[in-house]
Each structure stands twice: as structure tokens, then as C-alpha cells.
Amino acid sequence: MSNDTSSFAIGIEFDSVLRAISKQIYETPHAFLRENVQNAIDAVRIQALRDGKDVGDPEYVVDVHVDSKRVSVHDNGIGMSRKDLQEYFWTIGSSGKRGDEAKEAGCVGMFGIGGFANFGVCDRLVVTSKDSSSTTGTETSLSAEEIRQAGITIPKVTIVDSNNVNPRGTLVKGEVKTSPNVEELKTYLRDFVRYVPIDVRFNGECISRGKFEALEDQDNLVQIGGSTRKWESGDAVVLGRLWEDRGHTLVASVEELVWRGVRTSMRGRLRFEAGPIDAFKRGFKLCATQVPTSIGVSGRLDCDLFVPTAGRDSLDSETMGLLGQLVTLLEEVAVDVVLESPDRIAQHTRIFRYINRRGLIDKMKNVTVRFADGTEATLGDVRRQANVGGVSVFYGTARKQALSQVMQAQGHIVVQLSADRHRQAAERGYLEQYCRGKAFDGVVDCIEVYDNLTTFERVFLSEVERNIMRSYEIRDFDLVAGKLTEDIPSFVKEKGGKGRVEVIVDIRHAEVTKLKDLGLNDLVYSLISIFCREYIGPALRKWSPRFFGDGALNLELFARRRSELWVLVKDDIGVVRKGGQRQVVTKKDVAVLNVTNQEATEVDAKNPPRLLLIVDEDARTSLSGYYIKLPSWAFDAYGDLVPDCDTRGVVWTGNRITFVASDGVSAQFQYDIRLDEIVGIDVDGMLRAEGALELDRSPQSLFGGLYFPIPAKLTNFLVPSDAEEIRLDLHCEWVDMRSRQLWEAAMSG
Fold first, then answer.
1. Which pLDDT band, with edges at 50, 70 and 90, does 586 fall under?
2. What pLDDT is stored for residue 472 in this prediction?
3. pLDDT value at residue 293
4. Helices 351-358 and 317-338 meet at what angle, rounded to 10?
5. Torsion over CA of 194, 197, 198 and 201, rounded to 10 degrees?
6. Angstrom distance (rounded) from CA 604 to CA 589
7. Which residues pair with 505 in a beta bridge?
């Protein structure tokens, strides 16, 4: 024994490290199966490249077998020698798929997490493999019990000779800890391999070889503009075509990409409506993701440049940057085409957010508006009539319809502004700039200052003042309670030309008085906050340091201010993402808030409910339904920013449900919930393990936290029944496409 006392070997509690590694990678049979099948597909791809054959040749097979106790994946790819098994499969951090050959073959794996991560699912793992240069194969095995017995030492992998994989290939067998749902696993795996050209069999049934069509249902599409087009922006040049369906929704088919001067394969389609974007690499699905957009973009794309994170549930920062630039480019192309047709404009109502943010008022000539007498015309028609001479153009709201009809009878053009605030702002801007349009009373202004305010009115104004200072950090402003000329609930204007702001709020407007009967409670304060963001916020952003000029959240500013709460992920390629927090929820975790009776389940302020059911029997607030709480550690870091994102939706894919909130420009918040079951939703009569929905209710600030609305179709997966427990693994992050950075919340506990 050495007498050296100047140093000692580092110890490692391998079992604890293993649990940390496997936590976010192979924690369920779903992920275990997906990752090992992906490794098998990679092995076949390399073998086909070496053989000089097409990867779809029927001689190449990946065979998956699942029963109540075991999951096995067998391929006849390149296989591994005894040395390869030791250095690559059973060594954490090492990978044999980082070279040029693997890149040329189109391999997905490169992270080197190794076989150890499988023990998040397996009690015992047996891996048998043989490459073409070896005379015999090698069987390696290790059990969870052997890992525990190793203590602070590295466990030993058992090795014996084997001929079970002649002439070459790999067989991975895992004895799973819990019996899997076989049909559920098949549905899940098919979602990832359905477009892989290799024969992937699940218990004897082929679940792959689907044709990756750039367009589906092409018979119902009409091409716009003839042949293939070239669209350019920054580092990206995209070749593709633009199509229109019978409902006038636009679809872009992508045929090729030139990225930073290098031509690369990219194919797929993007549909200009809200939903997930599925990212594929040579037919293998990497994940479903969302990209911040103004008008909504969904679809699927296949590209060799796509790189997933080590956990395979998201894309790395470079890929998200590429996707963000690509979607921004195609969104710009789509908006220009939408604005060519009144029918397309009617279908893509969200373009008005884009128009206002990008200053495209001049392109609105084909937008249809309604006159006071009920007739319709385009803004271009209004402009032509206004420029003839002798014709005055006025605009107002439907509430002044009688006055509008009188003015129109006198020969004036009177436009009834749309109810949607984004469209209304765009219409008003066009009428003022190009038609010399005027509001009925010339300008929006305060025509009566209220006095003798009630208790509710004083509280309402106090909450508005607090929200302006807290959410927009504006201190130099005057708050006035009064009636406005256009019968609108609020108006913001600069006072005196010195940067001071005047905020006028009609506290006796119907939008305010409808809250009076609800009493003064957390729900009302939450609704006042929403009122501020909807009616005052868009105007206040101009003076707020929290936003850029185009309305985007300044995430870098908040990251500097909250360095102790925000963790910047500088490069997430090959890094196992820090895990979320696990929660187990039961029926007792659901609190009930009755709007009508102003009653709520007793709530502990220090431990607010994880799930909330709002009951509104009289339909006063349109808030009825279930809500899920944002984790406390994420609320501390992001809770005051998320409500400022007025584009909100939810995406489900596999065993994940992701709530998304975006400023529609560059910043996107993602609240990721992972379950122990596949999320299968009935969509048009078909059970789908992926999809997206827009949220029809706003997040609510209640009980010192933030609650996201749960769509009815997802309630069964997030809200437990009487005797049920649901395990939720929670993760939150901000993605900034502008700076291509990603921040996570520093979690406590």
C-alpha cells in the first residue's frame, strides 16, 4: 500500500450521479425506446453508407419487441466490437458518431450519454453486439443492483462472448421496472419513425416507411405565383413555393435551403396558422417546437442542420436560431401575399398585429371595412374616393351608429372601426395617413372628469396605478378618471411634449363596472391587471424601458437585473439540461373559486393550490375552467413578464404538454410539463399524440402566483380524478430568437 498522504482519489456516488443523468433522458419507457431505436437507425444508416446502398434497402431492419417485462431493440447495422462497447456505449460522455462518416450518413445521436442512462427505466440491461471485423460477438450486462452495490466505486460491466447477432448488429434488451402500455408505446414510437425509410418493426408490425410529403392534400391547394421562388434574408436563402387552400389559408412548401452560403437539404411545409413545428432529420422526428410569430406558423421541416438537445425534447440554440430566421422570412412573404386579397385577409385575422409592429399600414388597401349604412368596401376604395375632393372621411365605433348614419347621409364616408383592437389600430392608422380621416369628435379626449368616486372606483384606479408602475416601470404619468369621446374604456397620450404620459380611464365604462359585483378579491385584482395589459399596455410600451420599439420584451435587460434568478444556457449542444421539479398532484390539490357566490376553497397563502377550478355559473367573466399554477421558482423569475405576452397557446407531443407565451416578435416563454403517459387527443376523429391549441382564456394572477388556463381537451391529463395521482415534471425557460439565447429559472429546493 502506498504511504503517499499528499493526495487521494476522488470518490463518486455512482448511483446518485446515474439518477441525475437519467432523470431527463430515459426516465420513462417512452424515451428509453425512442433513444435506443434512434441509435439503431443511426447504426443502419452508417452501414448502408459503407455498403454503398440505399438506406431503404429491405435488407436493413430495426426490430422492436415489447412485452410486460422487457423491451428489446435489434438492428443489423454496423455493430460494435468489444472495445467499441466499452468506449462508447458504456462510457459516459463518449460517442462514436461525431465523425465525418456519421455526419454524411445523417446520424442524429452525438451526445455520448451512454448505456447508463437506460437505468432510469431498467433494472437490468443486456447489450449484445458484433461488428463485421470481429469473429465473435460480445454480450455486456449490468443491473441496477450491481450499481448500488458498487457504492462510491465505478460498477463493473459483465462481458461474455455471444453469437446472437450474426453476422453483425446490436441487440439491446432492457428489463423494465414497471410494465409498459404496449399500444401506447407503439403510438408514441410511430410518431418518431413513421417517415424513416428503414423498416422499423414493432412486435412484427412495420411502423415506418411513410412518405414524407412536402404537401398533404395537394388536390385542395392552388399554387400562387407559378414556379419555385427564392426568398432571402440574412444568412438564409429558401427555395420553395406558396400555396392557398380552399379556405384561403396559405401554405409554404420548402424545397431547399442555403444557410450561410452552403446548400443543404431541407424539405417540408409550413402552414400559416398557430400550432407546433415538427423538426425531423432524415425522416426521424427530433421534437415538436414553437417559434414566436405574429400570425401563427405550424407544420414540419426535415433538415440535416437540425440538432436536438441531449434530452431530445427540444432543439439546440443554433437550430432554434435557424428556425427563427426561417419562420420570420416566410412570415414576411406570407403577409405580403395575404394583403393582396380581401379573402385571405379575412382568413388571417392575426396579421394586424404584424402590420402594426412592422409599420405596414401602407399595404392595407385590400382590407375590407364596413360603412355606417352596412355596406362594405376596401380601404383602397375609401382612399380613392377621399382623394376625389369634396368628400370627408370619418371613423368611429358601432356604438355611435345613429350619428354615423346621419353623417353618411350628408355625403360623408363614415367607417365603422373593427372591434379587434389590433385591426382597429391599423384601420385608424390607414384612414388618418391616406384618407385624411378624422374621429367623430376630431380626437379622442376626456370630456368629463369624474368626482365623488366610490370605494370600488378608487380601488380600481389604485390597482391601475400600481400596474403601470410595476409592469411598465413608468413613474412620470398622470392618471385621470373620466369619460372619453369615443366611448372607449381608456386612452393614453403624451402630455406637454416632454415625455410625461396622461392615462385616462373611464371607470364607469361597461368594461369596468361589470367587475363591481364580483367584490374586491384576488380574482378582481387579476382581472384589473388584464384590463391594464389589454387596454393600456400597448400604448404604454412606447415609454416603457421593458420593451423595444417593436413591442418585443427586452429579455437581456431582465437577465442582467435578475442574474441570481436567471441562468443563461450559452451552448446547450451536448449538455444534459437541468431537470425540472417533480410534483405529485391529487384531487385535494384542486381549489375551487366560485365567481358567482364569491366563495373559494380555503387557500393557504404560503402554499397556494397547484390546480384551480374557476366556476362562473352566470358567465360574467368567461373564466370558467381549470388552471394550473406556474412553479414558484419560475414565478419568482418570470411571473411579471409572462402576462405581457399576448400570444398564448399550448402544444402537446408524446408525454409533454407545453404552455407557450410569446410577444409575437422574438421572446417566447415555455412552461413544459412532462407526464408518465402519452397525451392522446381526439382530433377530427383520430387519436393524435401531438397538436396545438390557442388559449381562449388569459393567465390569472391569483393567490400570489400565476395560473395558466387548461384547455378542456387536456383536462383529463392534468387534473386528477378522485382516487388518482398524476406525476408532473415541470420545466420553464425563456427563448430569445433575436439574441439566440436561452434562459432557465434558477430553481430552489
1. confident
2. 92
3. 86
4. 100
5. 30
6. 12
7. 481, 490
As given in the structure block, the three cell numbers for residue 241 are 413555393
Q: Quick one: average pLDDT of 248-256? A: 92
Cα–Cα distance measured from residue 703 to residue 172, given in angstroms and rounded to the nearest whole number: 49
Q: Which triple of cell numbers denotes residue 713? A: 381537451
- Dihedral sign of CA atoms 334, 235, 322, 208 in order: positive
| C-alpha cell recorded at residue 9 | 482519489
Q: Which residues contact 73 (CB under 8 A, 6 or more apart)?
A: 33, 36, 37, 39, 40, 62, 63, 64, 171, 172
Query: Which burial class, exposed, middle or buried, applies to 706 when counting CB atoms under 10 A from its CB (0-12, 13-18, 19+)?
Result: buried
Radius of gyration, alpha carbons of the chain: 30
Which cell numbers in the block locate residue 211?
A: 412518405
- Contact assessment for residue 189 and residue 216, using Cβ atoms and an 8 Å cutoff: no
Q: How distant is the alpha carbon of residue 366 from its chain centre?
A: 32
The answer, yes or no, to whether residue 294 has pLDDT greater than 90, is no
**pLDDT tens-place string over residues 322-333:** 998 999 999 999
The C-alpha cell at 461 is 384606479
**Which DSSP helix (H) or strand (E) runs through 457?**
helix 455-472
Mark residue 520 as left, alpha or beta (left: phi above 0; alpha: psi -120 to 50; beta: remaining).
beta
What's the per-residue H, E or C state across 107-146?
CCCCCCCCHHHHHHCEEEEEEEEECCCCCCEEEEEEEHHH
Q: Taking the mean position of all CA atoms in its chain, how far away is CA 466? A: 30
Q: Name the band, by pLDDT with cuts 50, 70 and 90, for residue 599.
A: low
Distance (Å, whole) CA 722 – CA 54: 54
Q: Cell numbers 393567490 correspond to what residue?
A: 703
Question: How far is Cα 102 from Cα 88, in angstroms, rounded to an integer?
Answer: 14
Question: How many CA atoms, within 13 angstroms, populate the side-chain half-sphere of residue 606?
Answer: 0
Task: Give me the amino acid identity at 608.
Answer: P
**Residue with cell string 400565476:** 706
3 state SS of 181: coil
How much is the pLDDT for 374?
78
Beta strand 250-259 pairing with 277-281: unpaired
pLDDT for 576: 33
Closest-CA residue to 305 (of 286, 331, 329, 289): 286
Cell of 653: 407531443
The backbone torsions φ and ψ at residue 82, rounded to the nearest 5 degrees and listed phi first, read: -60, -40
Percent of the chain scoring above 90 in pLDDT: 39
pLDDT at 45 over 70: yes
- Measured over the CA atoms of residue 448, residue 451, residue 455 and residue 458, the dihedral's sign is positive
Query: How far is Cα 643 from Cα 657, in angstroms, rounded to an integer?
Result: 19
- pLDDT tens-digit profile of 365-405? 999 998 877 789 999 999 998 887 677 888 877 555 555 55
The residue ranges of DSSP E strands in 413-541, in sequence order, are 413-416, 438-439, 446-449, 477-484, 490-495, 500-505
Residue type, 195: Y
| pTM of the predicted model as reported, rounded to 2 decimal places | 0.79
> How far apart are the C-alpha atoms of 582 and 20, rounded to whole Å?
13
Is residue 371 packed enough to be buried (19+ CB in 10 Å), middle (13-18) or exposed (0-12)?
middle
* 441 Cβ contact list (under 8 Å, min separation 6): 447, 485, 486
Instruction: Label the pairing between strands 236-245 and 581-585.
Output: unpaired
Cβ atoms of 93 and 87 closer than 8 Å: no
pLDDT tops 90 at residue 360: yes
What DSSP letter does each residue of 154-206 carry, written as one string? PPPPEEEEE-TT-SSEEEEEEEESS---HHHHHHHHHHHHTT-SSEEEETTEE
Report cis status (omega within 30 of 0) of the bond before 167: yes
Alpha helices in 516-582 (DSSP H): 522-531, 537-540, 555-561
Residue with cell 395558466: 708
